[in-house]
Amino acid sequence: MISNGEIDDGSDESSKSLSNLCDRFGGIKALGMESERIPDSALTASSAFEMLHVGPQNARLNKDKSGGAWCPSKQLGAETSGSEWIQVDLGSLHVVTGIATQGRYGKGLGQEFTEWFNVLYSRQQQQSTSNLTRWIKWKSLNRRSNLEGNIDPNTVHRNHLSSPIVAVRYIRLVPLSNHTRTVCLRFELFGCPYSGRLI
């Protein structure tokens, strides 16, 4: 099952031109989480409840390997919401136009999912010693930053970004919760490679 979340904030012409940007680069495609074109080595996370079974390498949409998703080491709640993240290195600059998410199915035993999340992005490589990466929080045209996640462990929910992220290499998904819960996540990014000038 797939449910769609349209983050649609009007017919702003600049948004339309950005949305059509991928037409110049071969159209919008899945960027490689489900297909594993994005390697495990490109996936990192703030923590994992257990690295082998629910580490970031298991956060692939429609895959049910090992524990079935990425799950951070601690529960989220009102005071810890936004403190955990999963990151993907796309390897080169891309346009990101959409994100699809699932929870943890775990061969039918999983019950954990992420109801809401933020997206952070960066063009530059993380400086491991000083952590100087400049992360920008994605916001829609009307300045909303919270994206709708899932309502169960296995239904795919897709968010179309009416304000696409342009010329980006690193993406972080940051789960949110205002009540105490275990969150788990699988995802795919949609968009295209970017070979234009930096804007």
Commentary on this structure:
The protein contains 2 helices and 9 strands. By secondary structure, it is mostly beta strands. Strands 1, 2, 3, 4, 5, 6, 7, 8 and 9 form a 9-stranded mixed sheet that branches. The longest helix has 7 residues, at 13-19. Residues 5-14 have low confidence and may be disordered. InterPro entries: FA58C, Galactose-bd-like_sf. Pfam families: F5_F8_type_C. Keywords: Receptor. This is Discoidin domain receptor-like protein 1.
What are the main properties of this structure?
Jelly Rolls, 6% helix, globular
Count of DSSP strands: 9
- Overall pLDDT score: 89
Largest sheet: 9 strands, mixed
The helix/strand series, from N terminus to C terminus, equals: EHEEHEEEEEE
Number of helices: 2
InterPro entries: FA58C (IPR000421), Galactose-bd-like_sf (IPR008979)
Protein name: Discoidin domain receptor-like protein 1
Keywords: Receptor
